[in-house]
Write a structure and sequence with these properties.
Strand content: 5-15%
Helix content: 40-55%
CATH superfamily: Divalent-metal-dependent TIM barrel enzymes
Order of helices and strands: EHEHHEHEEHEEHEHHEHEHHH
CATH topology: TIM Barrel
Bound molecules: 3-O-methylfructose in linear form, magnesium ion
Strand order of the largest sheet: 3-2-1-10-9-8-6-4
Distance between the termini: 21 Å
Number of domains: 1
CATH architecture: Alpha-Beta Barrel
């Protein structure tokens, strides 16, 4: 049974201002230094970055200035014994990415998306991480007939190849999501992401990041998605959280909607000693809009606490008893064993 220590990471976007699509912010802005202080406080080791979290205003800086600022960020992290887990090109907020990035119908938009992604590679290299995360946020359609899915698949591969070519050491973890902000995404599931990776110039350098809620939004079981990626040696990061069925993207506390589902995710990670691979456990969770500013990091502490409690639950699970039940095909007994164990019996 695995006994390795997990490394945790968080992104600045996980400590937010409480805005939702129906109202303005309800809490003051949180500076990056405050995010760092919270991460240190929680005992996290890694920070997840969008390219412009690491280097604000990077669109208006020269490549040399970008590298300089990223190096300064690396020093800032090192002073706190922290590292950058990954850098993700934020293509979905810029006017040039209005119709998507790599699959935009506008050739200038596609060119911009690839150039911006290369800058993200520069940022990653300067911050000492070899991992680029691609969440293909607007690579999809709102009007199905507006883009050709065959063409889109080719364009995605071209973009991934361009990023791989930018640095021979860089690895790409694709973070699929089936919808939001688009109606239908071109890379909705782990199967799509892995298939795309296998068709790229260097498949060994393309893997996945699995977010629990994204799998649930695709109608899939996150632990099975993780198992599928783990079997291929491709699970390079996770965004643990929860989602109560098919509705808006909730980014709930890990285990908040389905504790057993959370147990199953921890179980599959433990079964391969994921912690020993050095990959991070990230939480992509949001504070409730109703939280007061001084209490707006509880969602992170709770997600980590639930995760660690579930690690204990997995490590104390009566495996031999379960194996006997499985051998005897008594899955009803197994059902009860799991439920009693989770209930503390
Ligand atoms: C959206 C997400 C994103 C990504 C992040 C890094 C804002 O549903 O999950 O969080 O995780 O952009 O790729
Ligand atoms: Mg995410």
């Amino acid at each position: 049974m695995a006994e390795s220590q997990y490394r945790f990471s968080v992104g600045p976007w996980n400590i937010g201002r409480g805005a939702d699509p129906f109202g303005p912010p309800v809490r003051p802005a949180v500076s990056f230094d405050e995010v760092l202080a919270v991460a240190v406080d929680l005992g996290f080791d890694g920070i997840q970055f969008h390219d412009d979290d690491a280097v604000p205003d990077l669109e208006n800086l020269s490549p040399a200035q970008i590298v300089q600022q990223a190096e300064a960020m690396k020093r800032k992290l090192a002073d706190l014994n922290m590292v950058a887990e990954f850098v993700a090109p934020r293509l979905w907020e810029h006017p040039s990415g209005i119709d998507g990035g790599y699959t935009s119908n506008d050739p200038a938009g596609r060119k911009w998306a690839i150039e911006r992604s290369k800058r993200a590679v520069d940022v990653a290299r300067a911050m000492g991480t070899d991992l680029i995360v691609l969440w293909p946020a607007r690579e999809g359609t709102g009007v199905r007939e507006s883009k050709c899915p065959i063409d889109a698949s080719r364009k995605m591969i071209e973009a991934v190849n361009a990023i791989l070519a930018a640095d021979p050491r860089i690895r790409i973890a694709i973070e699929p999501k089936p919808n939001e902000p688009v109606d239908t995404a071109f890379i909705p599931t782990i199967g799509h992401a892995l298939a795309l990776g296998s068709r790229c110039a260097d498949p060994a350098r393309v893997g996945v990041l699995i977010e629990s809620a994204h799998a649930i939004l695709a109608g899939l079981d996150p632990s099975d998605e993780m198992g599928f990626a783990l079997a291929a040696g491709k699970l390079w990061s996770v965004h643990l959280n929860d989602q109560n069925g098919l509705k808006y993207d909730q980014d709930k506390v890990f285990g908040a909607a389905n504790l057993r589902g959370a147990f199953d995710q921890v179980r599959v990670l433990e079964s391969v000693d994921y912690a020993a691979t050095g990959a991070f456990v990230g939480f992509d969770v949001k504070a409730q809009r109703t939280q007061k500013a001084e209490q707006a990091t509880a969602h992170l502490a709770t997600s980590q606490a639930v995760f660690l409690r579930l690690v204990e639950k997995v490590r104390t699970f009566p495996v031999n008893t379960a194996d006997e039940m499985i051998a005897n095909r008594d899955y009803e007994a197994l059902e009860r064993l799991v439920l009693e164990h989770l209930l503390g019996g």
